[in-house]
Amino acid sequence: MMSWKATSGRESVMRSLLVVGAVALALSVPALRRATAQTAPLHYGDPPVVLVGTLATEVFYGPPSYGENPATDAKEKPFILTLNSPVDVKAGADDQAEKNVKKVTLVFDPAEVSMKPFLGKKVQVKGTLFHSFNGHHHTPVLIDVQKIHATEN
């Protein structure tokens, strides 16, 4: 009789663990699919792409020494989009490929649009990508902004 109760108790515990494990697996599969979903690599130039992330500014040292002499170097504050999900960008004719891009610098005409209302907010940005090519570019990939708007996603 003792053996039967011990087996029954073990079975009960095993069933409980099995149910908990099944529920945990069921809840984690959609998140795992989202985390591992591979989007196609983006490209430089036309046609435009759409990126989603949070807009912020960051401070970088500029001329004359770009950080070698912080006391006299200018401070640049570009608008940086931290992407919701990292992206890959395919190599172009004159541009190198970039993998796992998490931040993109926004390039825009301040006479046409103000980025300040979007600071700290989730935004959707449409534009064409290009690769950095000078000391004022503080991320490897930049986007020439055509449209920007706040988003809930």
Task: Outline the secondary-structure elements.
Layout: H1 2-36, E1 45-57, E2 60-61, E3 75-76, E4 79-89, E5 98-107, E6 122-131, E7 141-150
Parallel strand pairs: 5-7
Antiparallel strand pairs: 1-4, 1-6, 2-3, 4-5, 6-7
Describe the structure.
The model is unreliable at 1-5 and 17-38 (pLDDT under 50). It contains 1 helix and 7 strands. A hairpin with an 8-residue loop joins β4 (79-89) and β5. A 5-stranded mixed β-barrel has the order 1-4-5-7-6. Strands 2-3 form a two-stranded antiparallel ribbon. It folds into 2 domains: 1-37; 45-150, OB fold (Dihydrolipoamide Acetyltransferase, E2P) (Beta Barrel). Helices cover 23% and strands 38% of the residues. The radius of gyration is 24 Å and the shape is globular. The protein has 153 residues and is of the alpha+beta class. It has one helix spanning 2-36, and strands at residues 45-57, 60-61, 75-76, 79-89, 98-107, 122-131, 141-150.
